[in-house]
């Protein structure tokens, strides 16, 4: 349904058509065509937290770096919708994944003094807690893993044995994950949140921004699909990774799996994947 308020005050004309786009589950997303021949992307949904879209805008602004990913400009944001510049439908350039590796390395070179962020935000529709924390192992344990155990869907689906395994694994994080700087993370870096920009360059949408371990971003990206080795070669030219980083990917991916379980009541396959990862540390 077209809503004139989407384009109010933007001098882009009136909305004349809205084509649904595939993407995240939290919002209905449309490419909206206007009476002046322009296109924008609108995300909207009822019954979402009133600060979800303003916090998405904050995250997009944080990720917009010179020489980095193409990140859509925020044209308008309210409690019920966000209007973004349209990155278009251009095909990926021949050097897309190599350029993406360099762009992510550049992003991860942006660091803070502590882990966290200047405000809490969202991963999906659940709060992502970002208190400034000096200890990266404590931050990941408490704010990225254990915090999900209190969510009703996790509490109801995870067996007590796996909850205890998770607690034991978090006690061992300092031995399992090497020290890493608090780097600027996208926070939900699966393939669906990367797409070509206007000139075919790598672009980025739908963030859950925070300062955390760089390997946490890589874990989400790698687990959800095979990446060209040119991506990792380009990344490591600017941001070398510690030995054994590939072996740590399943452990760091637990955060995404716990979040998925927390959002939906019937995730037997995800719960089984969590069990397999945790059992490997017995």
**In what order do the strands lie side by side in the largest sheet?**
1-2-3-5-4
According to CATH, what is the topology of the largest domain?
Aminoglycoside 3'-phosphotransferase, Chain: A, domain 2
Second rung of CATH, namely the architecture of the largest domain? Alpha-Beta Complex
Number of domains: 2
Rg (C-alpha, Å): 19 Å
Note the total helix count. Answer: 10
Total strands: the figure is 11
Helix/strand/pairing category? alpha+beta
- The shape, in one word, is globular
Report the sheet-strand fraction. 15-25%
CATH superfamily of the largest domain: Aminoglycoside phosphotransferase (APH), C-terminal lobe
Q: What's the CATH class of the largest domain, please?
A: Alpha Beta
SSE series: EEEHEEHEEHHHHEEEEHHHH
Family: Belongs to the fructosamine kinase family.
Keywords: Kinase, Transferase
GO molecular function, one term: kinase activity
InterPro entries: Fructo-/Ketosamine-3-kinase (IPR016477), Kinase-like_dom_sf (IPR011009)
